[in-house]
């Protein structure tokens, strides 16, 4: 409590929760196409428990200990191998249960392509595909109209706003690219 000649102020109160932290939510990102530089990110628990450290494990072997909520694994990962990453939050009261994600270093499956017209002018054709659920980190998607590359990126949709010619057949294909290689084209 602070006291001045005008009187005393109310006490500034801050409480702290001394408990085991909640389980971190883990996400994995491939940051290049070389099968290295896999970025592991996790949520910071929002339960007001002071974190002493985070521990990251690859296949139950410790690879990082620190206070950042992300880590880049620069190890060259082997193709056709599944890696399991786990993150544990540690407070002075103990460790959380591990937040776990697996990643499969493999060639991705072929995307299933959906086409839909978004207007009545023969332009703005929406090409979309579901994000694969095979735990293979995608570096990029490439969309081709006939044999011409028209899009490269990480979004799972592309709007072709080129004026399309009437009575002309267009073939769109999408390939998914991982560090292990390129999928066959989804048409």
Task: Give a quick precis of the structure.
The protein has 187 residues and is mostly beta strands.
Describe the 3D structure:
The chain is mainly beta and 187 residues long. Helix content is 0%, strand content 44%. It is built from no helices and 17 strands. The strands form 5 sheets. Strands 5, 6, 8, 9 and 10 form a 5-stranded antiparallel sheet that branches. A hairpin with a 2-residue loop joins strand 1 and strand 2.
Report low-confidence residues grouped into runs of 5 or more.
1-5
Instruction: Specify the biggest β-sheet.
Output: 5 strands, antiparallel
Please identify the structural class as seen in this structure. mainly beta
Cα radius of gyration in angstroms: 24 Å
Tell the overall outline.
elongated
Q: Whole-Å distance between the termini? A: 71 Å
**Strand segment count:** 17
**What would you call the quaternary organization?**
single chain
Helix content: under 10%
Count up the helices.
Answer: 0
Q: What are the secondary-structure elements, in order, as H or E?
A: EEEEEEEEEEEEEEEEE
Strand content: 35-45%
Mean pLDDT: 82
Map the helices and strands.
Blueprint: E1 3-4, E2 7-8, E3 26-30, E4 38-42, E5 53-58, E6 61-66, E7 70-73, E8 81-91, E9 94-95, E10 99-105, E11 114-117, E12 125-128, E13 140-145, E14 148-153, E15 157-160, E16 172-178, E17 181-182
Antiparallel strand pairs: 1-2, 3-4, 4-7, 5-6, 5-8, 8-9, 8-10, 11-12, 12-15, 13-14, 13-16, 16-17
């Amino acid at each position: 409590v602070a006291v001045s000649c005008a009187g005393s102020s109310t006490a500034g109160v801050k409480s702290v929760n001394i408990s085991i932290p909640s389980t971190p939510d883990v996400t994995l990102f491939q940051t290049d196409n070389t099968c290295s530089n896999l970025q592991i990110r996790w949520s910071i628990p929002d339960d007001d428990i002071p974190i002493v450290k985070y521990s990251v494990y690859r296949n139950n072997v410790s690879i990082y200990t620190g206070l950042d909520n992300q880590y880049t694994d620069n190890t060259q990962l082997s193709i056709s191998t599944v890696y399991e990453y786990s993150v544990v939050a540690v407070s002075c009261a103990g460790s959380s249960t591990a937040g776990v994600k697996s990643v499969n270093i493999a060639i991705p499956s072929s995307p299933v392509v959906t086409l839909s017209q978004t207007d009545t002018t023969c332009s703005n054709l929406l090409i979309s595909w579901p994000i694969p659920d095979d735990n293979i980190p995608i570096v990029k998607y490439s969309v081709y109209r006939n044999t011409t590359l028209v899009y490269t990126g990480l979004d799972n949709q592309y709007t072709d706003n080129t004026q399309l010619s009437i009575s002309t057949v267009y073939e769109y294909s999408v390939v998914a690219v991982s560090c292990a290689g390129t999928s066959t084209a989804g048409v």
